[in-house]
């Protein structure tokens, strides 16, 4: 997954719910050096009685916000969703360098 263009990541999930696997894989795919490059990562664990819904949200460096529901999507689907926009930004960056 291309995380180079992530500016902010928000993850909310119940560690005992079915969304936990997708959320944990998503968090694990963000390299540790990403925080040093200015990416903010907010993680919130939800309880069984919580009224908040599980969420994976990414704000890219071009200010575009994308959200995914970890209860209905697999990690591969989430990765493909966020990679689609990251690849557009990578292409744009490559064109601007030339």
Automatic annotation (TrEMBL):
<protein>
    <recommendedName>
        <fullName>Large ribosomal subunit protein mL53</fullName>
    </recommendedName>
</protein>
<keyword id="KW-0687">Ribonucleoprotein</keyword>
<comment type="similarity">
    <text>Belongs to the mitochondrion-specific ribosomal protein mL53 family.</text>
</comment>
<keyword id="KW-0689">Ribosomal protein</keyword>
<dbReference type="InterPro" id="IPR019716">
    <property type="entry name" value="Ribosomal_mL53"/>
</dbReference>
<dbReference type="Pfam" id="PF10780">
    <property type="entry name" value="MRP_L53"/>
</dbReference>
<dbReference type="InterPro" id="IPR042776">
    <property type="entry name" value="Ribosomal_mL53_fung"/>
</dbReference>
<keyword id="KW-0496">Mitochondrion</keyword>
<dbReference type="GO" id="GO:0005762">
    <property type="term" value="C:mitochondrial large ribosomal subunit"/>
</dbReference>
<dbReference type="GO" id="GO:0003735">
    <property type="term" value="F:structural constituent of ribosome"/>
</dbReference>
